[in-house]
Amino acid sequence: MTKDDDPEAYIEAFEQTAIQTGLDRSQWGHQLGVLVIDEAQAAYRALSREEAQDYEAVKAAILYWLEISPKTYRQAFRACKLRENGKIRTSSESQTTTMARRTRAKGMHDALPRHHKAT
Asked: Do residues 89 and 48 both lie within one domain?
């Protein structure tokens, strides 16, 4: 796992790989704990030895520690806005669009670096 990996996607890939390779499910918790880094590893290390052997406990602890839950997905979804074409636009995209419009309206686009000029 790297810092750029989506933890849920990583865990899902881990599960698929563990199944395909025939890894004994009793080893999943330990193996996942060895592969994760940073905050996910901190979550694993906070578990007791007994909990660390329970894959579902390891998975739940990592997701909880990283604050990944249905609630965080709802919050992220609510922060999104629809584009004119009906597709979802994230709040950061919305902010960028708003800033570009303001810059154009104020005639400041010539002051922006060439790769940031509004079109």
From this structure: no
